[in-house]
Design a protein that fits this description.
Blueprint lengths: L4 H9 L11 H9 L2 H6 L27 H9 L6 E6 L7 H9 L5 E11 L2 E9 L4 E6 L6 H4 L1 H12 L7
Parallel strand pairs: 1-4
Antiparallel strand pairs: 2-3, 3-4
Length: 172
C-alpha cells in the first residue's frame, strides 16, 4: 500500500485486493476517513476530524474482568429475532479462539451437527463453522486471521459478511 489516496481507496473498496502488514495502517485509515468525499459517503458531519485515538473515553481496566456472557445469553434467549455470529481469527494473539470457544460452549446450548463444518471461500477452506440447535447463533473461525479479521483476510471477511446477511451462518 502506498500513501497515494487513490490506492488507499481502491484497497478499502476492493476486498479481493491483498493487504500486507502495514504498521501505520491507522494513519492511512485516518487520512482516508478525513477525505470530504468519504465523509459524505458515510454521512459524517463535515466538521468531524477522525483521529487515531480518543482521549474523551476513559476506560476502567477493571471493566475487563466483567463477563459479557450474561449479555449474550440475554440477546440469544430473548425474543429479539437476532442472528448472532461470533467470529474469531485462529491466529489472534489478543483474544484467542480457544478462549472464545470456551465461553460459547459454556453457554450450554446444543450444537447442531455437524460441528466444525468447513467454511470455504472461493473453494478454499477458510475456517470452521458451528451452529446451535434452536438458536440463531453461529461461531466461525477464520484461518490465518489475527485480531482484526478484515485486515488480515479481507476476501473471507467480505464473504462472511454477505453470508451472515443472507442468514447462512446461523440457524436463523
Amino acid at each position: 500500500m502506498t500513501s497515494n489516496n487513490g490506492d488507499i481507496k481502491s484497497t478499502f473498496l476492493n476486498p479481493s485486493k491483498s493487504l500486507r502488514y502495514e504498521p501505520c495502517i491507522h494513519d492511512y485509515t485516518r487520512l482516508y476517513l478525513n477525505q470530504p468525499t468519504v465523509k459524505a459517503a458515510i454521512h459524517v458531519k463535515k466538521d468531524i476530524t477522525w483521529m487515531k485515538c480518543s482521549e474523551v473515553l476513559q476506560y476502567q481496566y477493571t471493566d475487563m474482568d466483567i463477563s459479557m456472557v450474561p449479555i449474550y445469553q440475554y440477546l440469544i434467549d430473548g425474543e429479539y429475532e437476532l442472528d448472532i455470529l461470533i467470529f474469531s481469527g485462529d491466529d489472534d494473539s489478543v483474544c484467542s479462539t480457544l478462549g472464545t470457544q470456551d465461553w460459547i460452549w459454556n453457554l450450554g446450548y446444543d450444537v447442531s451437527e455437524p460441528a466444525w463444518q468447513t467454511y470455504s471461500v472461493k473453494n478454499q477452506p477458510s475456517g470452521y463453522l458451528t451452529k446451535w440447535k434452536g438458536k440463531k447463533l453461529g461461531f466461525l473461525t477464520v484461518h490465518g486471521a489475527g485480531h482484526e479479521v478484515p485486515l488480515f483476510k479481507p476476501d473471507v471477511a467480505f464473504t462472511m459478511f454477505q453470508d451472515y446477511l443472507a442468514g447462512k451462518l446461523t440457524n436463523g
